[in-house]
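Narrative of activities, Objective 1.

The group set out to show that a structural description can be obtained from nothing but a protein's sequence at a throughput compatible with the screening campaign. Below is one input-output pair from the validation batch, recorded exactly as produced.
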Amino acid sequence: MDVLQRYVSQQPLEVETFFAMVDTTAELIGNSEKYWSSRGINGARIRILVEIAKAGGTILPSVLAVRIGVTKANISVLLVPLEQQGYIRSISDPKDGRKRRILLSDEGEKLLLDVLPGNRAVIAKRMENLDADKLKLLLSLLRKLQARKE
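Output recorded for this entry:
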């Protein structure tokens, strides 16, 4: 047990940094989820709507699945409640009628416009102990880590 204790307690800098990012990310996501929950909204569903909006309001389900990190099979299940609530709808792809596209509805756009400003304020409040220069440096470092995919 002593060897294991040393192994888990005395982390190399890379590992310590990794777990600091994991813990911080979990805390930030928790803050955001608290906001969504207080409004009776599911944060994962908002993420889907945001990704559709970022794509210009319409997207193929397979592309959406990649962007949010789920399988093509799971994306269908995730889209059902959003369609039932009227936030999205499915349309034929104009270039290939065999494919379906997901379209952000007027209701989905209205929801995002109603809730995103408050969520962005929650995030900004949590990040306020970093000035603009530190935020730019952090973003730069995170992008370097993202670029080093193997």
